[in-house]
Amino acid sequence: MELDLEVLKQVAYSLADHYLCVYYVNVNSGSYVVVTGEARQEDKDSDLPTGGKNFFEDCIKNAPMFIHPDDLDYMLKTYDKDNMFAKLAKQDSYTVSFRTMVNGKIGHMRHIVILCKDKRHVVCCLENVGDEFEN
Length: 135
Known about the structure:
alpha+beta; 6 strands; 30% strand
């Protein structure tokens, strides 16, 4: 089977249904595309971001808005480009778990980073793992 645009869209949307969002990041420029389950609706008026110019800067800028204060320093190091690629030099993927704080409620997330075969891109997935902490 040949990988055409429709196949790639289906793969991306299927992953986005499992994860809260999937980021496809160019490691050199930092530019990125975001795919979420909501993207399937292709609602042009949606407030959901579809990408940006610098994944690393955007993560660091936005982290204080949703990461639990006790995990913020740790996650800022995680989103640092040099730190990310030091880890990826040792292994092609890794995960980081952290807590969120939204509207006064604590949540649990997992950030998954995967180095693409072309070594020029990474895929970052954000997974809600709150169910793993419930009794």
